[in-house]
Amino acid sequence: MERDKNFVLGVYDDEDVLLDAVTRVRESGVKIHEVYSPFPVHGLDDVLGYKRSRLPIAAFFFGLLGTTLALVMQFYMMKIDWPMIIGGKDYAAIPDFVPVTFELTVLLAAFGMVGVFMISSNLKPWGQARIFDLRITDDKHVMAIDIANNAGFGEEAIGDVLKATGATEVNKKSFE
Amino acid sequence: MQVTSSIREPLITGGKTLKDVTHDVSRQVEGKPSLGWILGLLFSVGILLLGSIALVATLWEGIGMWGLNKTVGWAWDITNFVWWVGIGHAGTLISAVLLLFRQKWRMAINRAAEAMTIFAVICAAMFPVIHMGRPWLGAYWALPLPNTFGSLWVNFNSPLLWDVFAISTYFSVSLVFWYIGLIPDFATIRDRASGLRRTIYGALAFGWDGAAKTWSRYESVALILAGLATPLVLSVHTIVSFDFATSVIPGWHTTIFPPYFVAGAIFSGFAMVLTLMIVTRKMFHLEDYITIGHIELMNIVIIITGSIVGVAYITEFFIAWYSGVAAEQYAFINRATGPYWWAYWSMMTCNVISPQLFWFKKIRTSIVATFILSLVVNIGMWFERFVIIVTSLHRDYLPSSWAMFYPTWADVGIYLFTFGLFFTLFLLFAKFFPVINMAEVKSIVKSSSQKANK
């Protein structure tokens, strides 16, 4: 059977039942493809065993780039390219460079991080989501299990595991 | 899992389920607009068109159309600019600062408050741009672009240039923060719709799939953006205050300006959030999400920031006396007793006395009283900027240059134009975008409904 095509879906109504179910499904040896939720469920990434996002690190380095660019720009324009005495200050009046440096740091950190987030989560205006169940943006949590990835279990057996953990419905979904 | 003290009032009343949240918010987007909304939009667009006459006249004739003179070279333009920027601050405070403090009551109001921020900053930015006289050349004066003068650059020692960077960064970061929050809610509307609406909201939703991995990244992005936006919002009004504080004009040259301006900005911003939310919750029947509890909490923020502003006014006066500088002392005595005494005392009444009424629980939980006082606060905050700017300028160093400022129809018209623009944008937002952050509110539904059903 081909991977990433045929899924068994467990539908859950309650976020606390879901958190418990994720732990129990993983203990039973069934591999979870992904869980889809209408809102961020705290602790879900932990029980699924996801590593913490490295986006804050990206933000830090984009911020550092912003600081550097801002300082280089101001020193170049004010001291090197066209030096002028303004208010009797040094050409490179460093305290005066603080506000613009701060703003550009924030600007690049924010835009850089959001850009990386968009790319890593595949978010784009022409993006088409693969929708397992329309209700995951409304009121249901859906746990998707890739049948091909769980060769040791049959379709039925996966369904039984999901039911035993509190799934209110078990459905099948295939993608072309 | 949510853990909230059982003695607290639930944040969402009426025992709502997840499905109710989706329905109550999405139906505004999907249904036909109400009569109230249509009339509101017609009125706003009418004001916008009326005001645009003044705008076009100013662009055609130049800023000689305004009431400025040699002595008072800044008046309504910069007053309106500072006023609008200040209003914008509440949105970021609610969405970023309250996120860092884990205040869950922000969730029902952050979407609309951030929208208000963005529209208020657009209105604010209009004034310096128009004041350039020839705004189509403005990019060369405001941005470090290579030009035909052998690249004579912009002046990085000038607070006006810092403002360009502060306002544009603030606008773009707020816009991104707002949009990231909107993506999951656009996906909700996409998944309920068919046909053209599905295509449009599908494009706006950027292919959101609601996966746990995406949510995990989304939460980190929201947290870091809040961490960036918090110092940013404080920096913006600090830099706006530098426009005055770094000058040598008596009445402007004070180190108290940055914190005092930031407190004033939050004060007026919360008042505008209340004005808008009281109308929105009524128009769209959102009383179960934006409860009296929310209104009371916002009123408490108004008492705190209003008191900070009050203390700042008194401190300024005291320091003017204590400094022993005759020019400073004159500037302040003249504010309170000179030809603009009426503006000064309007400011004192509206900003220092009226918010103190919120100490009474009856008043701060009354919708009518809150609505009236929210308007009073914003009138007061407009007068504060007018007092600081015009009264400090109108008594020049030479008595022969003393003058008064009288606004012309063009001054009034451009201010009206920004009101029209602001309300038009807000009404369009309220109809076509989900006014409440559904995804975030859903995360507190369980704890709220358990309490409501007890």
UniProtKB/TrEMBL annotation, chain A:
<keyword id="KW-0812">Transmembrane</keyword>
<dbReference type="InterPro" id="IPR021776">
    <property type="entry name" value="ActD"/>
</dbReference>
<protein>
    <submittedName>
        <fullName>Quinol:cytochrome c oxidoreductase membrane protein</fullName>
    </submittedName>
</protein>
<keyword id="KW-1133">Transmembrane helix</keyword>
<keyword id="KW-0472">Membrane</keyword>
<dbReference type="Pfam" id="PF11821">
    <property type="entry name" value="ActD"/>
</dbReference>
<feature type="transmembrane region" description="Helical">
    <location>
        <begin position="97"/>
        <end position="120"/>
    </location>
</feature>
<feature type="transmembrane region" description="Helical">
    <location>
        <begin position="57"/>
        <end position="77"/>
    </location>
</feature>
UniProtKB/TrEMBL annotation, chain B:
<feature type="transmembrane region" description="Helical">
    <location>
        <begin position="260"/>
        <end position="279"/>
    </location>
</feature>
<feature type="transmembrane region" description="Helical">
    <location>
        <begin position="367"/>
        <end position="392"/>
    </location>
</feature>
<keyword id="KW-1003">Cell membrane</keyword>
<feature type="transmembrane region" description="Helical">
    <location>
        <begin position="300"/>
        <end position="322"/>
    </location>
</feature>
<keyword id="KW-0812">Transmembrane</keyword>
<dbReference type="Pfam" id="PF03916">
    <property type="entry name" value="NrfD"/>
</dbReference>
<feature type="transmembrane region" description="Helical">
    <location>
        <begin position="412"/>
        <end position="433"/>
    </location>
</feature>
<feature type="transmembrane region" description="Helical">
    <location>
        <begin position="113"/>
        <end position="133"/>
    </location>
</feature>
<feature type="transmembrane region" description="Helical">
    <location>
        <begin position="35"/>
        <end position="60"/>
    </location>
</feature>
<keyword id="KW-1133">Transmembrane helix</keyword>
<dbReference type="InterPro" id="IPR005614">
    <property type="entry name" value="NrfD-like"/>
</dbReference>
<protein>
    <submittedName>
        <fullName>Fe-S-cluster-containing hydrogenase</fullName>
    </submittedName>
</protein>
<comment type="similarity">
    <text>Belongs to the NrfD family.</text>
</comment>
<feature type="transmembrane region" description="Helical">
    <location>
        <begin position="160"/>
        <end position="182"/>
    </location>
</feature>
<dbReference type="GO" id="GO:0005886">
    <property type="term" value="C:plasma membrane"/>
</dbReference>
<feature type="transmembrane region" description="Helical">
    <location>
        <begin position="342"/>
        <end position="360"/>
    </location>
</feature>
<feature type="transmembrane region" description="Helical">
    <location>
        <begin position="221"/>
        <end position="240"/>
    </location>
</feature>
<feature type="transmembrane region" description="Helical">
    <location>
        <begin position="80"/>
        <end position="101"/>
    </location>
</feature>
<keyword id="KW-0472">Membrane</keyword>
